[in-house]
Amino acid sequence: MPYIVKAVLLGLATTLLAGTAQAYTVYVSNEKGNSITVIDSETQTVKQTVPTGRRPRGITISNDGKSLYLCASDDDGVEVIDTATMKVARTLQSGPDPELFILHPSGNPLYIANEDDALVTVVDVQQNKVLATVPVGVEPEGMGISPDGKMLVNTSETTNMAHFIDTSSFQVIDSVLVDSRPRFAEFNKDNSKVWVSAEVGGTVTVIEPATRKILKRIEFQVPGVTAETIQPVGVRVTKDGKTAFVALGPANRIAVINGETLEVEKYLLVGQRVWQLAFTPDEKYLYATNGNSNDVSVIDVASQKVIKTIPVGEAPWGVVVSPN
Amino acid sequence: MAALLLAFVSVLGCDTARAAEPLEIHIGVITHKAPPPALYELDPTPEDEAAAGAGLAIDDNNTTGRFSGQRYVLDQAVLDKGQSPVEAAVKLADGGAKYLVVALPADELLAVADALKGRPVLVFNAAAQDDRLRGADCRANVFHVPPSRAMVTDALVQYLATKRWMKLFLTYGPTEADKLYADALRQSAKKFGLTLAAEKAWTFGPLARARSDSITQSDALVFSRGTDYDIMVVADEEADFGDYLAYRTWDPKVIAGTQGLIAASWHRAQDAWGSAQLQSRFFKRAKRTMRPIDYQAWVAVRAVGEAATRTKSADPATISTFLVDPKFQLAAFKGVPVNFRGWDHQLRQPVLIAQPMAIVSVSPQPGYLHQRSVLDTLGVDQPESQCHLP
To answer: How many whole angstroms separate alpha carbon B169 and alpha carbon A285?
Structure first.
């Protein structure tokens, strides 16, 4: 009975949202294509393909939607791309080999993982100035920031830890050991949980940020798929905290997890080696990059169904959606 | 000003290490001084082979150790010609090294292991591929990182079977190692249903090391005439003639085995699953590309580090138990976690199939199944193993 009520409410919400559906712009970084694919979320078609620096991976966008930030890692710098012209406006200092980053919720600074140097570099995006470097574990990658901007979580792939960094003192205040090769960190909007995926360990560890206590280590079992190919990377949690989506890499699935019970509810079949995920701001759609099939899967969040596959450039890696 | 701030933050970063004395873990590395290069050597063994890999892993362990209160120290012993590996090992152990990474031939490895028997010291084999070390000559205090010859030839033959290149022409060299490699190849061919169309001993000497102005033996050029086969497989661990075979077979056939298409734990062209990061860290430190023995030494030291972090212990008995626990999962840039087989202490791992400048495939090949782990389709499986550890 409660399930039906929920379904009806969800249906209602979908209808309401559909009524006010807005066209967003989706940007996909193609690691081997050295390009960004620009997709219109209303028509779900490719509008444009823009050449970039070498090996574009991490990608994010300013709060006003006017600037795209892109890690073009083989060139040591973060490119700032003007979304109106899709031209590189300037290059930010980044430290060597930037792979992934996250913006402070206020839009500044940018926190960058420098994979080769076991550092997190903090950059003021207005003044293009390095504010601090924070030594972390080997091969830092995943970056998550608390909604209030006070706590940064960085994951180090070879050290296998989630480092909790105080963003005012730039100090690592705690490190939580998780499973092998942690790739991504994502906070709940109410700051109650942080989700850390472990690619080689095949799990997602859910941690309470205030106490750094592990709430649960989520495991995955997909019928007909060997355990070794289940390699969680990207994680996204809905604003209400009720649902989490986890990209499972070469298992070619996205796991849908109940955000309250932390139980896996279903698996969505997507393209090959699915890595990163991004919601539209209204959370109507979720985009997933499929690195080996060179396409993006579009998921209807309310119905939890894959509704479309859009071909993009070679080896799509990151994805971000415009805020407006 | 920015520089000042930077320095300040770095100091603070160091302060985040645990206030308590860190747990110090000494790891010894034993290698031979690199032999003088052979007659004609394009790619000589670097002086720091194995030690460079171990050194990088010590750095990696220490970066992690900052957050877990552990400090790793590398104690190195480089053996001159005629110097006793046993004496060096005992000296390292007496000096506090409870883990020894050993890049030595099989007999020397066994002598070291036996000399340390009963002491709280674990030995990691970083170079020897002999199957007997994982079989009749296995030791409870030894863990093996290199894939055994059986694993290497199984990995290669699985790939050939996947390509349906089923008829092999085996060419083997005169050394004991060549015989062992040839035996492993025959065994793998039998295991995966391939046939040996021909078998010939190479009797023309080290032609791959001959200068272009030396005499070419005409017999060597007609050596493979008159046989119907799909691919030539070569057993030449010293690389004396294997590289001579390509483009000199009677029919236009490809070469695999110890030369041509090879199977190995590591390769400089490997860049999938984040390997590019390990390759670039290694290159920055050693100023050269990472070789299989470097990688194997890296894995050995990282295995100790990972087990010590997870168990919060530096005790060899605790580490030894944890290394064979299914919960031990080392991320070793092979796409799946690697761990040690309980019955023979061999590292369970994917094996790369590569040609000189590129990765061709990774074994196990799709479709080879196993009730425990597909990785156990490579090498001697538990029921056939002659190793019976206590």
So the answer is: 57
Using DSSP's 3-state secondary structure scheme, residue A267 falls into strand
Q: Is A115's Cβ below 8 Å from some Cβ in B?
A: yes
> B362 - beta bridge partners?
B352
Q: pLDDT-based confidence at B212, cuts 50/70/90?
A: low
Interface touch A134/B9, C-beta < 8 Å? yes
Answer yes or no: is the ipTM higher than 0.90: no
CA distance B33 to chain A (A): 30
Q: In what order do the strands lie in the sheet with A140-145?
A: A140-145, A151-156, A161-166, A171-177
- The residues near B204 (Cβ < 8 Å, ≥ 6 apart) are B217, B219, B220, B223, B241
Rg (CA), chain A: 18
Nearest to B9 among A132, A157, A179 (CB): A132
Helix (H, G, I), strand (E, B) or coil at B357: coil
Q: Which of A58, A68, A67 is nearest to A29 (CA)?
A: A58
Placement of tokens 């040591």 in the chain:
A76
Residue A75: pLDDT over 70: no
Contacts of A47 (CB under 8 A, 6+ apart): A25, A38, A39, A40
Closest CA to B265 of B348, B355, B350, B335: B350
Strand boundaries in A188-284, DSSP class E: 194-198, 203-208, 213-219, 235-237, 243-247, 253-258, 264-269, 274-279
What pLDDT was estimated at residue B5?
A: 39
